[in-house]
Amino acid sequence: MARSPKNNKREQPARTVPTRQRLSSNQRGYNYQWQQARISWLQANPVCAECKWIDVPRNMVIDHIQPHRGGRLLFWDRTNWQTLCRNCHDQKTGRGE
Ligand SMILES: [Zn+2]
Q1: Is the per-residue pLDDT at 37 higher than 60?
Q2: Are 81 and 65 in contact (CB under 8 A)?
Q3: How far is the CA of 86 from the centre of ligand 1 (A)?
Q4: CA pair distance 92, 18, nearest whole angstrom
Q5: How many angstroms separate the CA atoms of 68 and 87, rounded?
Q6: DSSP state letter for 9
Q7: Per-residue confidence at 4, pLDDT binned at 50, 70, 90?
Q8: CA of 41 to the centre of ligand 1 (A)
Q9: Ligand 1 mean position to 67 CA, how many Å?
């Protein structure tokens, strides 16, 4: 046994932390409570704010107009919500949110 398992290589933590990597839904605050709020919102507001596409809730996305960045207040502020279809949402987030 020449090497101690503690002191192998890993002194330098990887500098490029994958911040763009998607966190799990729960980490982002999208928990059960959100799922419920989301469904009722999308049932009441089924129209995409961008292209006026209408679809069932599971094909639509609630977009935070002002990025909430984890802030509960903005996250739950329904005046900060808009309905987007997946296409428009992907285009928005593809531009860097
Ligand atoms: Zn759209």
Answers
A1: yes
A2: yes
A3: 7
A4: 20
A5: 21
A6: S
A7: low
A8: 16
A9: 18
